[in-house]
Amino acid sequence: MVNAARNPSQHEPQHDRHDRLRRDESDARQPRLMARAWNRVRAVPGPASPYKVGDAVVGDDPFNGRHEGVVVSRNTGSVGIGAAEGVVYYDPRQVRRQE
């Protein structure tokens, strides 16, 4: 007599069922761990700007010219200087403190 509607998990040994559940949990966690690791790789910080908002600085480069002002914004790759002409963005390597 063959019982086609029988549930195979009812006849599994207890330890096999727990092993399968642990595998399922680790499989569910893996995408989350991979996403976290990928976000950490993508968010590697660039060179930090040594200037703080409010510092008096001078920015000088061949494209923007020379501007004196106060740091109004700071990103990884740029420093915004509030000058008389408005806000001008410089690479932090082209900015120095006012003397």
Task: Give descriptors for this structure.
2 domains; alpha+beta; rod-shaped; 99 residues; SH3 type barrels
Structure in words:
With 99 residues, this protein is an alpha+beta fold. It has two domains: 9-42; 56-97, SH3 type barrels (Roll). The chain is built from one helix and five strands, in the order αβββββ. It has one helix spanning 14-42; strands at 56-61, 65-74, 79-83, 86-90, 95-97. Strands 4-3-2-1-5 form a five-stranded antiparallel sheet, with no helix packed on it. The longest helix has 29 residues, at 14-42. The protein is rod-shaped and about 75 Å long.
CATH classification class of the largest domain: Mainly Beta
Write down the overall geometry: rod-shaped
What's the total count of β strands?
5
The unreliable regions are: none
Largest sheet: 5 strands, antiparallel
What is the average of the pLDDT values?
A: 78
Which strand order does the major sheet show? 4-3-2-1-5
The total tally of domains equals 2
